[in-house]
Amino acid sequence: MKHILLFLIPFCAIAMPVMGELTDADLNEIRLIVQEEVKPIKADIVTLKTDVAWMRGKLEGVDKQFEGVNQRITHATNVSYGLIALIVAAIAIPQIIMAWREKGQKAQVERIENLENQIRRIAEQPNTGQINTGSSTVG
Q: Alpha helices of the chain — where are they, by DSSP H?
């Protein structure tokens, strides 16, 4: 135990000045050192704030450009839709007209076929000198 006590006494002697208090001069020196270290940091902060403000300005410009591009894309999309509608109309309207005409032509073809059948029946009848047309006789 004596040996340990003798061994620890030099360490206590070395640690004794640590328990002393800081004087005003020591505190002033510490303040000066801290201020000197803080000055470059403050300058860096000012530079960073300037850079951030510049970046915000750039981003606002980019946002405006994106808005312009978005408007152009919207306009181009609307024009494309209009062109698609015109193309569909250009194809559909003639098809509808052709179908309508074909329907009318079918009715005409049926009437012509009926008339042809009537003519054949009349031609096949024995020639009596009368043609049955329903209104008059030919002699």
A: 2-15, 24-124
